[in-house]
Amino acid sequence: MAAARRFLPALVLAAALSLSSGCGKKGALIPPEALVPAPIGTLAVAQKGAEFQVTWTGPGKQEKGGKLEDLAGFLLYRRNVLPPAQDCEECPSAYKQLTLVDLDLPETVRQVGGLWIYDDFDLKKGQTYQYKVRSFTRSGAQSKDSNKVRRTAVTPPLPPVLEAAGSPNEVTLNFVGLPPEQGTAAGYNVYRSKKGEPMPLTPLNKAPLTGNTYQDQNVILGITYSYAVTSVATAEGQTVESAPSNVTEAGLVLPE
C-alpha cells in the first residue's frame, strides 16, 4: 500500500507532461488573446453632400504584434449623441450596428486602395453621431473598439457649376457656386481622374481655393481627364463639402 502511494505522484506527473507536450514537436503555447486583431486607429468621418463618409484602414497585425493573416471583416457601429444630461455612451443600447462587412462579399462598403468607405445617408440635420468599428477573423476573434469619431450633420452647400477648357500648356477650370445656406463659404476643392476612372478621395488642391479659376498644368498630352469641383463651407466648427459638380472632360490640345 505504501509503495502504491509513492508511485501515484509520479504517475500523475507523467500524465501531466504527456498532456502538455502533445504529439510531435514541442512548441510554446499561444494565448488566445495573441490571435485577436489589433484595434483600428484610423477611423474618420467627413460630410460630403448629404452623406457622411466613414473611412478606416484594416489592421495588419494581431494585438500582440504578430502578422494578421485571417482577417474576415468589420463591424461598424453608430450612436446618437444626446445632450450631456441624457447621454450615456456606456449604456448597452447606445450603439447600433450599422453594417457587417464580409470581405468575401463586401456589399455595403467601397474600397479605394487600403481604405474602406461606408456612405451613411441616414442623417438628421443638427444631430451628432458617433462611430466605432471592430474587425474580426475567420476563427471568430474580435478586436477591441477602434478610435471613436463624431460629427454633427449640417446643411451642405450646393454643388457648383463647372466648365473646363484645354490649351497647349494647361487645362483651365472655371466654376461658380452659391453661398451656403448654413455656415460660411471656405472655397472650392478640385478633383481629377483619368477619363473612365473613379474620382480620388482627396482633391488636387491642398487647401480650399478662394478664387473661381484653376489652372491644371500637371497634365499629359494625349490623356483626357475628368474634373469635378465641390463647394466647401465651415459650419458648426466643421468643414463640409457639397456634392460634386457636373463632371467635365478636358485635356491638352495642340496649337492650330
From TrEMBL:
PROSITE patterns: FN3, PROKAR_LIPOPROTEIN. InterPro entries: FN3_dom (IPR003961), FN3_sf (IPR036116), Ig-like_fold (IPR013783). Residues 1-21 form the signal peptide. Residues 156-256 form the Fibronectin type-III domain. Keywords: Lipoprotein, Signal. This is Fibronectin type III domain-containing protein.
